[in-house]
Write a structure and sequence with these properties.
Number of helices: 4
Number of domains: 2
CATH architecture of the largest domain: Orthogonal Bundle
Helix content: 10-25%
Structural class: alpha+beta
CATH topology of the largest domain: Arc Repressor Mutant, subunit A
Radius of gyration: 20 Å
Shape: elongated
CATH superfamily of the largest domain: Winged helix-like DNA-binding domain superfamily/Winged helix DNA-binding domain
CATH class of the largest domain: Mainly Alpha
Strand content: 35-45%
Length: 223
């Protein structure tokens, strides 16, 4: 016989009561519309996975056409209830050009805190964190790119980043404006290390990796 699913999920000062369909902050109910509650429940249940906007729309509005702004409005409602700023993404993580994920540490009934695991590698673009999946990640402005940078100077298929565990390499795909790592043009597959600045044409992103050692970071600070 399978145990019943946990009825209450806790993160920070919040409680998500799945039985009563209620979000509480410090024991006091925080207002959420039924569909906004469903969105938060879905993101928490699927953590640490990032769900695409299309997937979220299909699951929240099955067999119903809604405008693209409907999901953004729901995310704003959830963030307001969680006192979460979009730029910080403490609870709700935005993957630019793709979708949303839950970024917090969760504690279920009778269990200790279980942190949502972070991806091994990602790119930081201003306030946006762009997750890099295992294997090949095409970077470009095209809608088919895994890492989409919707800037005219970036080619549709500009470059590719290949992730293998905690390591990654970048390779230019004969882009119009080139790919540069640490200021040097990428002419072949180039290994990336935590903190490397990668320029895709004029757009500069920072490569981040959880496998970076404290020693490497300390050396970089001294440099």
């Amino acid at each position: 016989m399978k145990p019943e699913a946990e009825k209450t999920v806790r993160f920070g000062e919040f409680e998500l009561d799945l039985d009563r369909r209620e979000l509480r902050r410090g024991g006091t109910a925080a207002h959420l519309s039924p569909r906004a509650f469903a969105l938060l429940e879905l993101l928490v249940a699927e953590r640490p996975k990032t769900l695409s906007k299309d997937d979220l729309r299909k699951r929240l509005w099955p067999d119903t056409y809604v405008s693209k702004t409907a999901l953004a409005q729901l995310v704003t409602e959830v963030r307001k209830a969680l006192a979460d700023r979009a730029r910080e993404g403490h609870w709700i993580r935005t993957v630019f050009g793709f979708g949303y994920g839950f970024a917090g540490t969760v504690e279920e009934d009778g269990q200790g805190a279980a942190p949502a695991s972070r991806p091994a590698c990602w790119l930081r673009w201003g306030h946006h964190h762009l997750t890099l999946g295992e294997g090949e990640n095409v970077v470009g402005r095209g809608s088919e790119a895994e890492v989409r940078i919707a800037v005219p100077e970036v080619s549709r298929r500009h470059a590719r980043i290949v992730v293998d565990g905690g390591t990654a390499t970048v390779e230019d795909l004969q882009s119009r404006n080139g790919t540069f790592v640490r200021g040097r043009a990428v002419n072949r597959a180039t290994k990336l290390t935590d903190g490397d600045e990668i320029a895709f044409g004029p757009e500069v992103l920072v490569f981040c990796s959880t496998s970076a050692s404290a020693t490497t970071r300390a050396v970089r600070r001294r440099e």
